[in-house]
TrEMBL record:
<dbReference type="InterPro" id="IPR001849">
    <property type="entry name" value="PH_domain"/>
</dbReference>
<dbReference type="GO" id="GO:0032934">
    <property type="term" value="F:sterol binding"/>
</dbReference>
<dbReference type="Pfam" id="PF01237">
    <property type="entry name" value="Oxysterol_BP"/>
</dbReference>
<keyword id="KW-0446">Lipid-binding</keyword>
<dbReference type="InterPro" id="IPR037239">
    <property type="entry name" value="OSBP_sf"/>
</dbReference>
<feature type="compositionally biased region" description="Basic and acidic residues">
    <location>
        <begin position="661"/>
        <end position="702"/>
    </location>
</feature>
<feature type="compositionally biased region" description="Polar residues">
    <location>
        <begin position="311"/>
        <end position="326"/>
    </location>
</feature>
<protein>
    <recommendedName>
        <fullName>Oxysterol-binding protein</fullName>
    </recommendedName>
</protein>
<keyword id="KW-0175">Coiled coil</keyword>
<dbReference type="InterPro" id="IPR011993">
    <property type="entry name" value="PH-like_dom_sf"/>
</dbReference>
<dbReference type="InterPro" id="IPR000648">
    <property type="entry name" value="Oxysterol-bd"/>
</dbReference>
<dbReference type="Pfam" id="PF00169">
    <property type="entry name" value="PH"/>
</dbReference>
<dbReference type="GO" id="GO:0005829">
    <property type="term" value="C:cytosol"/>
</dbReference>
<dbReference type="GO" id="GO:0006869">
    <property type="term" value="P:lipid transport"/>
</dbReference>
<keyword id="KW-0472">Membrane</keyword>
<dbReference type="InterPro" id="IPR018494">
    <property type="entry name" value="Oxysterol-bd_CS"/>
</dbReference>
<feature type="region of interest" description="Disordered">
    <location>
        <begin position="110"/>
        <end position="142"/>
    </location>
</feature>
Length: 759
């Protein structure tokens, strides 16, 4: 729905169509708003203005806040709050300007009324020169026009009085000419005298009004000149301020360049090529840190002699490392190239589009305000906040850049392999940069298979193995020499202004050829601007990728976004070290775009002091080379939940799926088709069915304990997952779920005995 006409000012009145938030069902609805005499009132239609007002806010005590480009909020302290939306940013600014002027005017009127005890209409308020510029000038002109109109009315009344007075005197003169005697003649003479006095008084009043009008017009010219001078002065100040801001920006850039040049000539930051600051938010956003964090190390270009030395030269590196690293520096991402086989040719054409996301309005704060401090997984949420995939499918999106593990499996050097594993770890976050929608919470026993053996050589299986806390087990086996497994439990807390999502669990990558076993954990994801503003996502924290076979380690740091940082946004840095702590590679880049690596030729202590007085490590590195780069989003991704090419195919129905597969979930399918109301109803049905099944399992557990006369205890859920067995991890010592086999064999036979009925 679009706004057909602009707000129209009429004297002291400002009126127009604005969209007002009504409720969860109807969202924003168009209402006719009228701003007059410091009061903002609204009606359903213009026809209601004469008889039915739907609500009024006194602007003298109200607060006005801007949400984003089109939204603004007006509140009088809690009793009344209007969430409004204009048709465009220009219209919003017009309303904001009018509201602020009306608020200031109402506040002045209230203050003067409190001081004098008299109530003056808004039009009688004095206007101070230089306050309000053009808007105040318009108020003065309006007041003068009103005053002139009233004087003209008085002049008309004077003409009428003169006319009727003359007629009255003539009539009295005629009566007097009849030479009435006695008491009647005396009365006529008295009336004639009084009529003459009344005419003289009326003429004096009209002359005084004319003098007042002339005086007001003379003063108005001086007021206009003063206002015009103030307006011109304001324009000059704005131009000067803009010029100063440009000069300040230029000087700041020049100072930074000079500082970097003085600190280390040709210094190379650990973040690779520069990227613009990725935030267009206002000052009300909440950031993790208030000041820029100092880097843990500094990288500088290595001396050219290192490029010429052979692997046998005394450069501090053994010959094996130099020869192994040659492929990374000379032929990155192209080692051990093989002729493409027929297995790489896709046998099935995957879909490239899904139905566009409907434009349903919903106020997140109206639902989340009572959930501060609670676990998000325990809050019933409508599908309006979701995206049409489940958490199991979102977990499978980690395989978007599986080719990094394919290349890692071909590496001869464990340190070189570590670079690819670390890049794969970072690449998993590239799909989240625009994804502010919440995946569906999987039902207990829900599964998702991703069979890409023909196209990419791997098969993936996820299963929801626990509901409270929610936990998903994931197992991937690749024909190209690697296995990936993980069990992730998502802990989430709503903090009022932002949402923290903390994945708990360890990810394992095992390579068959070298028997290298890598583990790492995920960082914290934060969704900002939950209450107002545009949602945006940040990743922050540190990751240690550990090779338990060789002892190699890569420490990755995801820098949180900082408004005051001079560095690129979404920055990631890392150092690959051997078991002795010796650095061999430096990784740098951003988690939403690309990662690069640089081979370390020499390291030393020096540079600027760190945050605690410690000296930073300076790494002399060869030229940085690209390790991973994000694939571009499909055309029209902004209307398809910003899904990647892989994500678009995840909910595509396939033959032979298990009855518990996420693609069979009805509420998720209805949401993808744009039928959100039906999806919400179906979601409630599925959740109630899941709760009923859990209560039944608890009753069975109580019955079994009673029959076996076991010790008393609280009822517990005896659920056992179908495709994963619970055991202790030999590497980390954690209690995890390991794939027990049989799924793909059951799919080939079409035999799904033992699968629960969850849909």
């Amino acid at each position: 729905m679009s706004e057909p006409k602009n707000p129209a000012p009429a004297g002291d009145t400002y009126k127009g169509w604005v969209f007002k938030w009504t409720n969860y069902i109807k969202g924003y609805q168009r209402r006719w708003f009228v701003l007059s005499n410091g009061l903002l009132s609204y009606y359903r239609t213009q026809a209601e203005m004469g008889h039915t007002c739907r609500g009024t806010i006194n602007l003298a005590t109200a607060t006005i806040a801007v949400d984003d480009a089109c939204n603004f909020v007006i509140s009088n302290g809690g009793a009344q709050t209007y969430h409004l939306k204009a048709s465009c940013e220009v219209e919003r600014q017009r309303w904001i300007t009018a509201l602020e002027l009306a608020k200031a005017k109402a506040a002045r009127m209230q203050a003067e009324s409190d001081d004098s005890g008299d109530d003056f209409p808004p039009s009688s308020l004095p206007v101070a020169p230089g306050q309000g510029g053009g808007s105040q000038n318009s108020e003065v002109q309006s007041a003068l026009r009103t005053l002139g109109s009233k004087v003209e009315d008085l002049s008309t009344c004077n003409d009428l009085i003169s006319k009727h007075g003359s007629a009255l005197q003539r009539s009295l003169s005629e009566l007097d000419s009849l030479r009435l005697t006695g008491e009647a003649g005396e009365k006529i003479r008295q009336v004639t005298e009084r009529a003459t006095l009344f005419r003289i008084t009326s003429n004096a009043m009209i002359n005084a009004c004319r003098d007042f009008l002339a005086l007001a017009q003379a003063h108005s010219k001086r007021w206009q000149k003063a206002l015009q001078a103030e307006r011109e002065q304001r324009v000059r100040l704005e131009e000067a301020l803009e010029q100063l801001a440009k000069q300040h920006n230029h000087l700041e850039r020049a100072f930074r360049g000079a500082a970097q040049a003085n600190a280390a000539p040709d210094i190379k930051g650990a973040a690779g090529p520069g990227k613009g600051e990725a935030s267009d938010e206002d000052d009300d956003n909440e950031f993790f840190d208030a000041v820029e964090e100092a880097p843990e190390f500094i990288t500088v270009p290595a001396d050219p002699q290192f490029h010429k030395r052979s692997s046998s030269n005394a450069s501090g590196f053994n010959s094996e490392m130099c020869s192994d690293d040659q492929s990374l520096n000379e032929e990155p991402l192209a080692m051990n190239q093989e002729s493409p086989s027929q297995d790489l040719v896709p046998l099935k054409k995957r879909r490239t589009r899904i139905p566009d996301k409907p434009n349903y309005s919903l106020n997140l704060w109206s639902i989340m305000k009572n959930c501060i401090g609670k676990d998000l997984s325990k809050i019933p949420m409508p599908v309006n906040f979701n995206e049409p995939i489940s958490m199991l499918q979102r977990l499978s999106e980690d395989l978007e850049y599986h080719e990094l593990l394919d290349k890692a499996a071909k590496c001869h050097s464990s340190l070189e392999q570590m670079c690819y594993v670390a890049a794969f770890c970072v690449s998993a976050y590239s799909t989240t940069v625009y994804r502010t929608g919440k995946p569906f919470n999987p039902l207990l026993g829900e599964t998702f298979e991703l069979d890409r053996r023909r196209e990419s050589g791997y098969r993936s299986l996820c299963e929801q193995v626990s509901h409270h806390p929610p936990a998903a087990a994931h197992h991937v086996i690749s024909e190209r020499g690697w296995t990936l497994r993980q069990e992730i439990t998502v802990a989430s807390k709503f903090r009022g202004k932002y949402l923290s999502i903390m994945p708990l669990g360890t990810i394992h990558a095992i390579f068959a050829k070298s028997n290298n076993h890598y583990t790492w954990k995920k960082v914290t994801t934060t969704v900002h601007n939950i209450i107002v503003g545009k949602l945006w996502i940040d990743q922050s924290g540190e990751i240690d990728v550990v090779n338990h076979t060789t002892g190699d380690r890569c420490h990755l740091k995801f820098a949180p976004y900082s408004y005051f940082s001079r560095d690129v946004a979404r920055k990631v840095t890392g150092v690959v070290m051997d078991k002795d702590g010796k650095a061999h590679y430096v990784l740098s880049g951003t988690w939403d775009e690309k990662m690069e690596f640089s081979r370390v030729m020499q390291s030393s202590r020096g540079g600027e002091n760190g945050t605690e007085g410690k000296q930073k490590t300076v790494y002399q590195t060869l030229k940085a080379r690209e390790l991973w780069k994000r694939n571009p989003l499909p055309d029209g991704a902004e209307s398809m939940y910003f899904f990647t090419a892989l994500a678009l195919t995840l909910n595509e129905p396939e033959e032979g799926m298990a009855p518990t597969d996420s693609r069979r979930r009805p509420d998720q399918r209805l949401m993808e088709d744009g039928r959100w109301d039906e999806a919400n109803s179906e979601k409630q049905r599925l959740e109630e069915k899941q709760r009923s099944a859990r209560r039944e399992r608890e009753r069975e557990a109580v019955s079994q304990r009673a029959s076996s006369q076991s010790e008393e205890g609280a009822p517990h859920d005896s659920y056992k997952s179908r495709w994963f067995d619970r055991c202790e991890d030999q590497i980390t010592g954690e209690q995890i779920h390991i794939y027990n086999g049989g799924y793909w064999e059951a799919k080939e036979l079409g035999s799904w005995e033992g699968c629960p009925d969850i849909f």
